[in-house]
């Protein structure tokens, strides 16, 4: 397996390129349109065919590269079924498998940040990878105050789904603003301040009082991303 974590600095977004080295087929998670040239370069350097590009949710802080990558590579584009995206080739739901060569990613519906938020699980050679989108961040969690977000739903996604994974499971989020690249479920259980709550009521109180400004690109990014990045 080939695995690369890629970073877009303006929105502090992580994208993930995962490829089966036998078939040379690849999947790209949460691509950013401004980095399209870099993605194409990597694909060409490694001799990869991009089969699938997909988003963990409808992003509000950057424009997705789904449409542009489909135009340039002929790849399939996927989003969660709750996104109601008419431009995506297909949608995934809870339990769906995205298969690229011998790579199998299992979709988990983890709403809360948005109602169409998903995480993906990958098992490879005894190691479990968890791509958590904006649901679980490193020492944080995604805000829940727009796009049908819900602190209660997010609490359930965290405590009933993601935190049930083994402690050694690697956690790869869609963003980090401190430069941290990877964590584990065990680290987040122990050190993530948002997870040190006694119940859903306490969690909701924390999330309801963050008072964060809207993302700068929200008014442009959300409608564009519902159209796979086409402005």
From TrEMBL:
Highest taxon above the source species: Bacteria
Cofactor: Fe(2+)
SMART domains found in the cross-reference section: Lactamase_B
Any one biological process term the GO annotation gives: hydrogen sulfide metabolic process
The protein's Enzyme Commission number: 3.-.-.-
Enzyme class: hydrolase
Keywords noted in UniProt: Acetylation, Dioxygenase, Hydrolase, Iron, Metal-binding, Oxidoreductase, Transit peptide
Residue intervals of the Metallo-beta-lactamase domain: 12-175
GO molecular function: hydrolase activity; metal ion binding; sulfur dioxygenase activity
Similarity annotation: Belongs to the metallo-beta-lactamase superfamily. Glyoxalase II family.
Protein name per the record: Beta-lactamase hydrolase-like protein
Taxonomic classification: Bacteria, Pseudomonadati, Pseudomonadota, Gammaproteobacteria, Thiotrichales
